[in-house]
Design brief:
This protein has 117 residues and is mainly beta. Helices cover 0% and strands 55% of the residues. The strands form 2 sheets. Strands 2, 4, 5, 6, 9, 10 and 11 form a 7-stranded mixed sheet that branches. Strands 1-3-8-7 form a 4-stranded antiparallel sheet, with no helix packed on it. It starts with a strand and ends with a strand.
């Protein structure tokens, strides 16, 4: 019953910034136990992990370290991805994912990010 709704994607020039949001519902009291992640997929490429925030720690792909920041709000049951210093190869559809072993995983619908020169 978990549902994720993403927003914040758009068109931005190289070096610009975007903030993606993922609002969740159906978690009950369990949201703090979930691992929340952002993935992205560009045309012709496999979906790749961008960043994850577990109950105790956050991790990032090497390609985005120092530029992207993942955060979550346990009261609002939302996760965010602040993206700075964007590059053309950051262009992709970005997906929000929620995972907790007893309930499995859920995915958002994706939001398009396009970075132009």
């Amino acid at each position: 019953q978990v549902q994720l709704v993403e927003s914040g994607g758009g068109l931005v020039q190289v070096g610009g910034s975007l903030r993606l949001s993922c609002a969740g519902s159906g978690f009950g009291l369990s949201f703090p136990l979930y691992t929340m992640s952002w993935y992205r997929q560009a045309p012709g490429k496999e979906r790749e992990l961008v960043a994850s925030i577990e109950p105790a720690a956050a991790v990032y792909a090497d390609s985005v370290k120092g530029r992207f920041t993942i955060s979550k709000d346990n009261f609002e049951k939302a996760v965010y991805l602040q993206m700075d210093s964007l590059k053309p190869d950051d262009s992709a559809v970005y997906y929000c994912r929620a995972f907790w072993s007893p309930r499995g995983e859920s995915w958002g619908q994706g939001t398009q990010v396009t970075v132009t020169s």
